[in-house]
Amino acid sequence: MRSVRGIAGPPGERALDAEAAREAALKLLERTRRTRADLRRRLRDKGYAEPVVAEVIERLQAVGLLDDVEFARAFLAGRWGRRAAGWRVLERDLRQRGVEREDVERARVRFEAEQGPADEVRLARRVAAQAERRYAALDQRVRRQRLYALLARRGFDGDVIEQALRGEQERSDD
Fold it and tell me: pTM value?
């Protein structure tokens, strides 16, 4: 017999203990919001069997303690505007955390319903303005290429970048 965090018994016994898995999940959720994928991975790392993990996750979702859409909405609320990034980067970050594409879209709808429509062009202009000083000495064409590349890396799509840089162009012509 071995002891795992005070639980004695054969190695396979703990893997099938749904109550212990539920308690472990609640402790993990107590510290911070988590996605289904993250909680699943952490419970499996603790040695719980997949059927037990699936059952625990299903129960936690049913009572509202585990909600990927709410996780994504809170993530968007925390990141939007604080670290200027376009939707593509934010969506990629959420997908890397295990949030499904449909849940990301529902979270974006909720986020925009609370905050109002997200002005990606304004955000892209802010990023461009911050970088403008670095590129001020460059030829206008090269400066535009560099700003375009910077905004693309930050996750802004081509239409948003064009609109943002058009605004920059108009200001530099004055």
Answer: 0.72
Query: For residue 164, what are the domain limits?
Result: 120-173
Please provide the size of the chain in residues.
174
DSSP 46: T
Instruction: Check residue 84 and give left, alpha or beta (phi > 0: left; psi -120 to 50: alpha).
Output: beta
Q: Which two structure tokens, joined as six digits, stand for 60?
A: 């936690």
**Buried b or exposed e, range 50-85, using 16+ CB within 10 angstroms:** eebbeebbeebeeeebbbbbebbbebbeeebeeebb
Same domain, 89 and 111: yes
Are 72 and 52 part of one and the same domain? no
**What are 104-152's pLDDT values in tens digits?**
999 999 988 888 777 888 888 888 888 888 888 888 899 999 999 999 9
Copy the structure tokens of residue 28: 């993990």
